[in-house]
Design a protein that fits this description.
The protein has about 550 residues and is α/β, with parallel strands linked by helices. It contains 21 helices and 17 strands.
Length: about 550
């Protein structure tokens, strides 16, 4: 403060001398006044240098107490001064004293008016701090405070924490725009208020996430309440004369059975909500201990998955594809395997969904693609007959912006001829047919083959299938398993006939018996894959198979 005062002192003195010099027409550049201005800046700069070292701990408390003291001193001073004026005039008022009194009263009135406005403004700020401006519901900050109060006041009863997450709401925002998405969120909030009682606490705790705190709850009453919430979603939302259907997945945790803190309850409700999504969405699930074990296992897999490749825990296994007529190997599929030093063998059925959910499938898929291309090229350079290697591609990989670039780099780095690479893609790509078709056409121009994996279990449309530039259809194992059990071959026969009419290759997965192979051959299937011929084996074992049979027969 001392340096600041000195700096402003030099500034004021310099300005006065400068003004006087201008009047006398005596100022010239280089006058000592310029030195005063520099000194002023110098001292103010030093003040700033030392001010930045001051810590701001407790600043708000100090500021509030200072304002309170300042207000008391100001109002007390005014009243004392007013009292002294009245006493000094001994009730003999003139125009000056009356004007002074009026001025004092105006100042007081103005101060009270400012206090009223400030109080009103603070109430508005407080409301905004604890409420969501879009929906008017209490926000996450309010939830964190309210839930603690509710738990403390209901130590002898149960409290249900109900977590509501909208299903595929990102799709709504992407198709209708975020403005219309906000309108739907507002309508959903209004429906909550209509369907739930006034004393039920409702919060918007995330973008498309809502939380309900239900006191004195039992599983029966809680189930009834959640049924009301889901019933509210069955009625369409009207937006610009259009009907929009939105569903929700709900998870429920109960205090104190499922947790005694808000963090535990929220975590467990989230786990139950994820279970609802996995079981088909638009339902509710209660938390249970088995779910806790599953979530811990899932979290462990996600964590260990991040370093699995780096620690060389993952490798590719290869399974041959066989011509059903000649029993010659005509191709192979690269399959990802993971052996963890503590978890042991982790099934792809378990870790692939975790990789997709966490986004790790992009980097893992890129590694698989590079490994498969390099291994196939290595076998070709060793003199083995050139066959095509198939690599599975997830929907997230396929939709990734750099997917084509990744494929091109894998081909370029391995120097593998593109005709010896096939990408197996699930039927899910048909949900976005325009973009998928463009990517498939780009792959075809690169000379890379493509196939639809697990055909018949997803979104395939016969009219769409004929327009896609694909080379192969792979019949899902579920159809092959039923061949000898039910004796119904119509579905398999229809898929094979469809593929042949479209000039597509047909590969049947999961062949395990001679009977299945015979039926598939009679139905016109050309290629098979399964344990009847060989289970997936590592690169060394597969190379041994190649050496023994020399591509004649298995």
């Amino acid at each position: 403060m001392l340096f600041c005062v000195i700096g402003f002192f030099f500034q004021v003195v310099g300005d006065l001398i400068y003004a006087y010099s201008l009047i006398k027409d005596a100022y010239q550049p280089g006058h000592f006044i310029d030195l005063l201005s520099l000194l002023s800046l110098f001292f103010i700069g030093i003040a700033g240098f030392y001010a930045k070292e001051i810590k701001n701990d407790g600043e708000l408390k100090t500021l509030n107490s200072t304002r309170t003291i300042d207000g008391i001193i100001s109002y007390t001073s005014i009243f004392v001064l007013l009292l002294l004026v009245v006493l000094s005039y001994q009730r003999n008022f003139n125009a000056l004293s009356i004007g002074l009194l009026l001025t004092f009263f105006i100042v007081l009135w103005r101060q009270f008016q400012l206090l009223h406005k400030n109080k009103k403004l603070m109430n508005q700020f407080k409301h905004l701090a604890y409420h969501d401006p879009l929906t008017g519901l209490n926000n996450r900050r309010s939830f964190l405070e309210e839930i603690e109060t509710v738990l403390k006041s209901h130590q002898d009863s149960q409290v249900a924490l109900i977590l509501i997450n909208l299903d595929r709401f990102k799709f709504v925002n992407d198709t209708l725009g975020h403005h219309n998405g906000d309108e739907i969120l507002a309508k959903i909030s209004e429906r909550f208020k209509e369907n739930l009682s006034v004393d039920t606490l409702i919060f918007r705790t995330g973008g498309d996430e809502f939380t309900v705190v239900f006191s004195n709850a039992t599983e029966v009453t809680c189930s009834a309440l959640v049924d009301e919430i889901l019933t509210g979603f069955r009625k369409s939302f009207i937006l610009n004369d259009n009907e929009i259907n939105v569903t929700a997945s709900i998870g429920i945790s109960m205090f104190p059975n499922h947790g005694v803190t808000s963090e535990e309850l929220m975590k467990n409700a989230d786990a139950a909500m994820c279970l609802s999504k996995e079981n088909g969405k638009n339902i509710f699930s209660f938390y249970n201990t088995d779910l806790s074990i599953a979530m811990i296992r899932k979290q462990q897999i996600e964590t260990e998955l991040r370093k699995a490749i780096q620690n060389k825990q993952m490798f590719l296994a290869y399974q041959p594809k066989v011509d059903l007529k000649t029993l010659e190997i005509v191709g192979m599929e690269a399959l990802l395997r993971w052996k963890h030093p503590e978890l042991g063998w982790v099934s792809p059925v378990e870790f692939i969904p975790v990789a997709e959910e966490s986004g790790q499938i992009i980097s893992i898929g890129e590694w698989v693609l590079h490994q498969a291309c390099q291994q196939n090229k290595r076998w070709q350079e060793q003199g083995y007959h050139c066959i095509c290697v198939s690599v599975n591609v997830s929907v997230l990989q396929f939709q990734h912006g750099k997917f084509l670039e990744t494929v091109h780099k894998a081909i370029q780095k391995s120097k593998l001829d593109p005709q010896f690479l096939e990408l197996e893609i699930t039927e899910s790509i048909m949900q976005n047919i325009i973009e998928s078709k463009e990517i498939l056409e780009s792959l075809k121009r690169m000379g890379i083959k493509t196939s639809i994996d697990d055909f018949g279990t997803g979104y395939s449309s016969l009219s769409v299938l004929s327009k896609l530039p694909i080379d192969t259809i792979k019949i899902d194992k579920a159809f092959v398993d039923e061949l000898e059990v039910t004796g119904h071959y119509s579905t398999i026969k229809a898929i094979i006939d469809l593929s042949l009419n479209l000039n597509l290759n047909v590969v049947a997965e999961g062949i395990e018996t001679e009977g299945q192979m015979k039926i598939l051959k009679e139905s016109g299937c050309t290629t098979g894959q399964g344990y009847l011929f060989s289970k997936p084996v590592d690169a060394d074992e597969f190379e041994t198979i190649l050496q023994k049979i020399d591509f004649i027969k298995i």
